Amino acid sequence: MSEFDLIRRYFTRATPGAELGVGDDAALLRVAPGMEMAVSSDMLLAGTHFFADADPFMLGHKSLAVNLSDLAAMGARPRWALLSLALPQPDEAWLQQFSAGFFSLADQHGVELVGGDTTRGPLSLCVTIMGEVPQGAALRRSGAQAGDDIWVSGTLGDAALALAHLQGKVQLTEGEFAACAQRLHRPEPRVALGLVLRGIASSVIDVSDGLLADLGHILECSGVGAELDFAALPVSPVLGGHKSQPLGRHCVLAGGDDYELCFTAPVSQRGAVSAISQQLGLPLTRIGSIVSGTSDILGRSCSVRTEDGSIMNIMESGYDHFA
Ligand code: ADP
Ligand code: MG
Fold first, then answer.
1. Are 303 and 227 in contact (CB under 8 A)?
2. Which of 5, 37, 212, 309 is the most buried (most CB within 10 A)?
3. Which ligand places an atom closest to the C-alpha of 3?
4. Confidence band, pLDDT 50/70/90 cuts, at residue 299
């Protein structure tokens, strides 16, 4: 199978939302009047982000999901994607499953694949996503204000707990592992939430590297600090059984790959946030507050209060490829 057959067979679909899609030297895209384009790119490498023998359908899903999560955190509506692939060899069964996983999530969110690149090499996947947001309405990391509430969607830590199980650091039952692995392999990007947070949230980030690390970016960009209430951090029933142990604590505070949204909003928006939670059928939990001042005596901008009122001694923060 030639490179061009491969592209035609697995990655060429109708793209009615683009002026021009796959097949020429570049795609042609037009954003609606009054909108601006939000663009983001994420790379997944075998060995770093996934196991080389990972289920290709799930990889197709995840490679797009992590990008949709970034647009969700901007409050942008996803529209188009580019897919750049390096493949050790053109394995048709793998490509069939990978593209099925990719397109099933793309279809759910109205995303059209408009181009990419395909080369031979160690398995790696890079998706670039493009979406639309009304001019000036994008949700940024920099808007948090002292006094704002801090919220998080869904639950935290399951993906990291599944990974810990795979790494032999914890022994989950089959049922427990299945529940957590779903979060690791098939994250559900919070696109609908991002859209309705426009005009309500003061800052938003998606939790891809761990709550403390990602909230830390909001704090840094906004020039503020935070106080979190550990007991309030929302977890699944499975993680609940581990939350008080060091590993569970690490998963909740510093585990990556959850792809929930962490956001801040003025106290006056509590009713609106609750209404959104109802409307979307998605738990939104208040986990702390933004405070003025950017760091304590140890240089930490975020403190975590335990149930007995003491401040947790936090060593971990999140995943950093270069740390
Ligand atoms: P060029 O050599 O001009 O870069 P390519 O041969 O790489 O063109 O690509 C031909 C067309 O196929 C282009 O429209 C490109 O965007 C598209 N394409 C290549 N790889 C992929 C892929 N993995 N998914 C979707 N479109 C792709
Ligand atoms: Mg090319």
1. yes
2. 212
3. 1
4. low
Q: CA geometry: angle at 283 spanning 58 and 40, to 5°?
A: 50
> What are the phi and psi torsion angles at 313 (to 5°)?
-90, 105
103 ligand 1 Cβ < 6 A: no
DSSP-derived pairing of the beta strands 302-305 and 225-229: parallel
Tell me 283's DSSP state. -
CA of 64 to the centre of ligand 2 (A): 20
Whether 85 lines ligand 1, by a CB cut-off of 6 Å, is yes
119 CA to middle of ligand 1, Å? 10
Instruction: Give the span between the Cα atoms of 268 and 121, in whole angstroms.
Output: 52
Distance from residue 22's CA to the centre of ligand 1 (Å):
7
Mutate to test the pocket of ligand 1, among 117, 125, 129 (most ligand atoms within 8 A of CB): 117
The residue whose two tokens read 């859209």 is 195
Ligand 1 nearest-atom number relative to CA 3? 6
Residue 170 tokens read as 């914890």
Three-state SS at 78: strand
**Is the minimum distance from the CB of 111 to ligand 1 under 6 angstroms?**
no
212-234 pLDDT tens trace: 999 999 999 999 999 999 999 99
User: Over pLDDT 90: what percentage of the chain?
Assistant: 85
Q: Which tokens sit at 313? A: 């001694």
